[in-house]
From TrEMBL:
This is alanine--glyoxylate transaminase. Residues 25-334 form the Aminotransferase class V domain. It comes from the Eukaryota. It is an enzyme of class 2 (transferase). Belongs to the class-V pyridoxal-phosphate-dependent aminotransferase family. Its cofactor is pyridoxal 5'-phosphate. Keywords: Aminotransferase, Pyridoxal phosphate, Transferase. InterPro entries: Aminotrans_V_dom, PyrdxlP-dep_Trfase, PyrdxlP-dep_Trfase_major, PyrdxlP-dep_Trfase_small, SP_NH2Trfase/AEP_transaminase. Substrate binds at R342.
Length: 370
C-alpha cells in the first residue's frame, strides 16, 4: 500500500496525470509532442492569468528553484539593486541566489509568522532605486501568504520601473494569482505543487517588458542553460506549433503537466481556489479550535495550500502518521525547526472530498497527540 503524501509538494497526483507519465517515448520535435507542448504553454498562460499573446510562458526541465536562477541571471545586471521581501526560508534562499549572480541585495524580514508591512516596502522603494523586488507568494517554511495584489499596486505607484518577481512555487493553482491584471513581471512555480503534476519542471511566465530587458544586447548572458536569450525563441516556436531545439524537454513530464493543467482549467480556477480555501479553513479550524494548537502563520495571512502548526513532539506526530500511511513534513525554519509540523493540502487531496485525505490526517494528528 502506498502512503498518502501530504507534504507541501510533491503532492498526490490524479489518475489521469499518472497515466500521462506512461506514454511512449517520442521525438521532442515530432508533430504529436509539439501539439502537446503548444497546448501546455497556452494553458500555462491561462492558469497564471497572463496576457494571451504578450510576454512568454516557459516550461523547463528542473525544479522551481531553477526559476530563481532564471530571474537572477536574466532580469538584473551585476551590482544592480534588488529588494527581497522575506517571509521565511525560501525568501532568504532567493536572496542568496540573487547575490550569487552579483546583485546588490537588500532584504526586509517579516516577523515570524507575519508579513512585511506595505509601509516598510514603500519606504525602501522611495529611498533606493531597485531593478527588481521579490515576493514569495507562499513561503512553505512558515505557511505565510503574501498579498501580492496589494504589494504590486504599491510598487507600480511608487517605483513603476522596478520588476515585480513572484515566487509562486506553493501558490500557483491554489491561491489567486492575476499575472497580467496585477502587472507582475516574472512568476515561477514548480510542477509538483498545486499544479498537480510530478516533480521535474520549472514553470514560469515573464512579462513583455521584462522579456525585452532579458533579450536586450545590453543585458549580459550569465547562465547557459537558464538563458532566456536561448530559451525564448524555443518556447515561442513550440507555443505557435513549431518544433525547436536548445536542450531536450522532459517529454513525459510535459505530457503529465498538460493533463494536470487541463484538469485545473476544466474545473475552473475560481472554483479551485475556493476549494483549497474551504479545505484549509476547515483543517486549520479543527487544529486550532478543537485541539487547541497554534499556527506558525498568523491566521489572517495563512496560506491555503499547506498548514504549519506547533506541536509538542513533532517527530512523534510525524512517526505516528507514517505508521498509519500518511506522510507529513517537519519544520525547516531555522528559528523553530524542531517545534512544528507542516501538512500539505493541494491538488486532488484538497479538492476531491471523496479521497478523505485531509479529514483522515486530522484524525491521525488528534490520535497522535492523545
Amino acid at each position: 500500500m502506498v502512503d498518502t503524501l501530504l507534504i507541501p509538494g510533491p503532492i498526490v497526483i490524479s489518475e489521469n496525470v499518472q497515466k500521462a507519465l506512461g506514454t511512449p517515448s517520442v521525438s521532442h520535435t515530432c508533430p504529436e509532442f509539439v501539439a502537446v507542448f503548444s497546448r501546455t504553454l497556452q494553458n500555462t498562460r491561462k492558469v497564471f492569468r497572463a496576457h494571451p499573446t504578450e510576454g512568454q510562458p516557459f516550461v523547463l526541465a528542473g525544479s522551481g528553484t531553477l526559476g530563481w536562477d532564471v530571474a537572477a541571471s536574466n532580469l538584473i545586471k551585476p551590482d544592480e539593486k534588488a529588494l527581497v521581501i522575506s517571509t521565511g526560508f525560501f525568501s532568504d534562499s532567493f536572496a542568496d541566489c540573487l547575490r550569487l549572480y552579483g546583485a546588490d541585495v537588500d532584504k526586509i524580514d517579516a516577523p515570524l509568522g507575519g508579513v512585511v508591512s506595505p509601509d516598510e516596502v514603500e519606504k525602501a522603494l522611495k529611498k533606493t532605486k531597485y531593478r527588481l523586488i521579490t515576493f514569495t507568494h507562499v513561503d512553505t517554511s512558515t505557511a505565510v501568504l503574501n498579498d501580492i495584489k496589494q504589494y504590486a499596486e504599491l510598487v507600480h505607484r511608487v517605483s513603476p520601473e522596478t520588476f515585480i518577481i513572484v515566487d509562486g512555487v506553493c501558490s500557483v493553482g491554489c491561491e489567486e494569482l492575476q499575472f497580467d491584471k496585477w502587472g507582475i513581471d516574472f512568476t515561477l512555480t514548480a510542477s509538483q505543487k498545486a499544479l498537480g503534476a510530478p516533480p521535474g519542471l520549472c514553470v514560469a511566465v515573464i512579462s513583455q517588458r521584462a522579456l525585452d530587458f532579458a533579450l536586450s544586447d545590453d543585458t549580459p548572458t550569465r547562465s547557459f542553460f537558464g538563458s532566456l536569450k536561448r530559451w525564448s525563441p524555443v518556447m515561442k516556436a513550440y507555443e505557435t506549433g513549431k518544433g525547436a531545439y536548445f536542450a531536450t524537454p522532459a517529454v513525459q513530464l510535459v505530457n503529465s503537466l498538460d493533463v494536470a493543467l487541463q484538469e485545473i482549467l476544466q474545473e475552473g480556477l475560481e472554483k479551485r481556489w475556493a476549494a483549497h480555501k474551504k479545505t484549509s479553513d476547515w483543517f486549520k479550524g479543527k487544529l486550532t479550535q478543537e485541539l487547541g494548537l497554534k499556527l506558525v502563520s498568523e491566521p489572517e495571512v495563512s496560506a491555503h495550500g499547506l498548514t504549519a502548526v506547533y506541536v509538542d513532539d513533532p517527530p512523534k506526530v510525524s512517526s505516528f502518521l507514517k505508521q498509519n500511511g500518511v506522510v507529513i513534513a517537519g519544520g525547516i525554519h531555522k528559528q523553530i525547526a524542531s517545534k512544528y509540523i507542516r501538512i500539505g493540502h493541494m491538488g486532488v487531496s484538497a479538492v476531491d472530498p471523496k479521497l478523505n485525505h485531509i479529514p483522515r490526517a486530522y484524525e491521525l494528528i488528534k490520535q497522535a497527540l492523545q
